[in-house]
Design a protein that fits this description.
81 residues; mainly alpha; 3 helices; 47% helix
């Protein structure tokens, strides 16, 4: 309990009250069948594999900040009319 007090900054009385409330909502059923756990794990891993996006550690590519226009193929400066 002391660790949770330090981490959350809440008093022990408040933590106990919230813990009892949460357990009541769960109907004091803290264990789940192995099959349900396995199904949850499989679904979670599949979702993680299907997630598309840029990895958090990937370098960010930003557009060039330039007043000049460039042809994408030749990288030569295009003269403005």
């Amino acid at each position: 309990m002391k660790n949770w007090q330090i981490i959350s900054g809440l008093h022990a009385k408040d933590l106990s009250l919230m813990e009892r409330w949460c357990l009541g909502k769960l109907n004091y059923e803290l264990a789940i069948p192995y099959d349900e756990l396995l199904l949850w794990e499989t679904n979670t891993l599949m979702k993680a594999k299907l997630r598309v996006g840029t990895p958090a550690n990937a370098p960010v590519k930003r557009p060039r900040e330039s007043d000049n226009d460039y042809d994408a193929n030749s990288w030569k400066q295009i003269k403005s009319c």
